[in-house]
Fold this protein.
Amino acid sequence: MDFNFMANTSVATFNIPSGVYLSGYGDRDKPNIGTHDPIHTKAVTISNGEKTIMFITNDLIGLDEDIANKIIFGIKGNFNIPEENIFISATHTHAAPDIFDWEFDKRFFQYELNKQAKENIIQTIVENGLKSTKELKKVSLEFGQSRCKGVASNRIEKDAPVDDLVSSIFLIGEDKLPICTIVNYACHPTVLGAENIYISSDYPGVLQRLVEEKFGEDSICMFMNGACGNQSTRFTRRCQDFNEVERMGKLLFGSMLVSYDNRKTIEDSSINGIKEYFEFPRKRLPNKEEAKAYYETMSQKLNEAKKDSKLPPEELRGIITKYQGASMTLKLQEVLENLNLRAAIQLARLGSLVFVGVPVELFNDYGFLIKEKSKFPNTIIVGYTNGMLGYVYTPESYRDGDYEAWSSPFDINTGEILTKRVIDLMEKL
């Protein structure tokens, strides 16, 4: 076993009081009434003796630029690490506090409890990240992959391609057990629906808990979501309660165990990071008449669907989301010019692994394409990194009137442009 890295981890729980509004569903208008399972921030600091990198994951729906910058400022002010080597992402659970002061949607950030939650969350992330920089231990970097069936589905087209790859990174200590496991999988954590008003980490929380129970109290598990813009549990979940959350998490845990059995040591000890601020192309909106006509069409379809008692729940949900997309396009008519669409793309190299962090909800079509074009043997797409600006969708999705495409502030060609930029940046690692 090659102990060619040094590392340490830390974990902290977000203290979220009742009364804080949750993010993730446009039709949820009630604050949380308690915590079902705690949500966390987790950090791992890794060094090869010359360079250091820090990965931070959070059981949150996402980050905005203000949050990311405050975290970076807090860590850099107390620890000598370059900004491009601080990699901050979110799991995208839809049962976490709304902490966005975003022009597009300020429904809940007006409430004092939500503003306080944001500041407490930032402070907790910074303090926990700094804890991981202390007393680094010798570790071996190992990597394994497997497939997970029955969790992710293409949430727009039931039979469309799904990225079911599970990529697991293990930092193995001298006792031959992982001190840290990072699991990458692409799927919206939306087992719980809009009716849920309890704090929860959804299925990634079950996965993380089971991994930590497996490897012991000195081990942490971190979850990084992938290119899941059009992937969710819509066509795989049996219902939307906490028992189903448990079932889904156990399925992913089983696949993680297969990846653990398949793991191989990565001998390359390279560490490097690149961070580039990118101006995402702004959407050319349909005229108001076209937007209003589509909204009225979808409103009528939704009213008809609600009257159809035989319509499967997943199909009803699909119609609801298209209606919401049409509604949000009308909103974009008012706010698009004021939206800040500048955010960071970040790449991190760890041995022969490359982490591609994007501040968007990337369709798996572009996740596949980036992996295909990557010069690295193992490419890990990490969505919700440094921000969450909207969906990067396919032209076909826009033509079909899908929620993801019609709610997005981005131009129809953004996916192609972003993919090319990511591949170009890889050449600098």
The longest strand covers residues 137-147. The first helix runs from residue 65 to 76. The two ends are 26 Å apart (CA to CA).
